[in-house]
Amino acid sequence: xxxxxxxxxxxxxxxxxxxxxxxxxxxxxxxxxxxxxxxxxxxxxxxxxxxxxxxxxxxxxxxxxxxxxxxxxxxxxxxxxxxxxxxxxxxxxxxxxxxxxxxxxxxxxxxxxxxxxxxxxxxxxxxxxxxx
Length: 132
Known about the structure:
By secondary structure, the chain is α/β, with parallel strands linked by helices.
């Protein structure tokens, strides 16, 4: 990929022309600088494929005080469903791992499939919802 920033500049944002534009001034290109001592680390980094397991899984919480704004969008897009007076949320389909926090103003009756913190469970149950 080409570098587009400071293309016509003689100083490259460093104020002095000689130390600005070349690879040696930024530590080299690619995996440069391995040399005698760091080659071992580079080899181990290349061979150990970092696998994606449940431990490394990205955890994204959904905060209850953001649900007011989100529910309308989710209902329009079809990701959330309305079941009589409750709104049904499946966290895994939405890309969230867990619900946490408290309601800010409006308490909404929710039926949540997924994990929730203790405080969030109490909030949802006190509003007349369920966490499964």
